[in-house]
Amino acid sequence: MSAPGPSARGTPPSGSFPPRTVLLTGAAGGIGTMLRELLPQQGYALRLFDVRPVEGAPAVVTADLNDAAALRRAVQGVDAVVHLAGIPSEAPFEQILRANIEGTTRLYETVREAGVRRVVFASSNHAVGFTPLPGPGEPPIPAGTPHRPDTFYGLSKAYGEDLAQLYWDRHGIETVSLRIGSCVPEPADVRQLGIWLSPGDCARLVHAALTAEGVGHTAVYGSSANTRRVWDLSGAQALGYAPQDDSETYAAGLLAAQGAPDSSAAPARLLGGTFCTADPPGLH
Fold first, then answer.
1. 185 by DSSP, 3-state: which?
2. How far is the C-alpha of 143 from the C-alpha of 161, rounded, in Å?
């Protein structure tokens, strides 16, 4: 974990610790929808933020991340932020720039102004997507893997991690960056067997990231305790994360239906899979 940032020394956090009132950005998205149900079961009161309406939910701010006034209202009085908002896959650079880069920057500056001291940032394995997958008998990918983004999307997640480091070093705002794999109810293909994060384990991971002490800026991988996992979970486990699920439950069915991937093809050799080989959308 990171050493204390210079402005953090001797500065008590504002709000309660462990945090109890949490701003959840991207609350209408896939992971946000899961966490809207699961985090309150762990005692959190949620304030929701999304550009899309969240029907039937209290305490919702419906706005874009670049709406400064709405973002200030959303952040006021919360103990921590779980930041999921943004474009969740590859897109033209201008869209990624506005939503994932400019929007995340505005969020951190608003967090700083409001005195919030903890952010959980939804990063991605695509921040290191060109990292080769380990072969048989090789050690898993370590948490300290340098950025090797595979797309504009992956680049935006690498930027978000570096932004989190800046706000820790300069302003003492702690962040856990979660390099999330495939967070879905069940893995959809053979590749996902190694990087699957179950909804329940996702909530456990976010809870650990919200409550661990002395994190500075820490980047960890996010997956379940998969038999076929490709990366090191020790960083997440050091936060108190104890995954309970394993994608091996689905392995036989997926392999029977899809077969083993071609080990000579780039998507099977690189962490980012098809993100490493798809044609980029370019600039428009």
1. coil
2. 13
Domain range 6-276, CATH architecture? 3-Layer(aba) Sandwich (3.40)
Cα–Cα distance for residue pair 151/157, rounded to 1 Å: 10
Q: Which of 108, 153, 159, 221 is catalytic?
A: 153
pTM: 0.92
User: Does residue 44 have an active-site annotation?
Assistant: no
CB 128 within 8 A of CB 148: yes
Report d(CA 185, CA 188) in Å as an integer: 9
Stretch among 11-25, 133-147, 170-184 having the lowest mean pLDDT: 11-25
Looking at residue 96, its amino acid is I
pLDDT tens for residues 95-149?
999 999 999 999 999 999 999 999 999 999 999 999 999 998 999 999 889 999 9
Compute how many other C-beta atoms are within 10 angstroms of the C-beta atom of residue 135: 8
List, in order, residues 6 or more apart from 62 with CB less than 8 Å away: 50, 51, 52, 53, 54
Look up residue 179 and give its two tokens. 């390099």
CB 183 within 8 A of CB 205: no
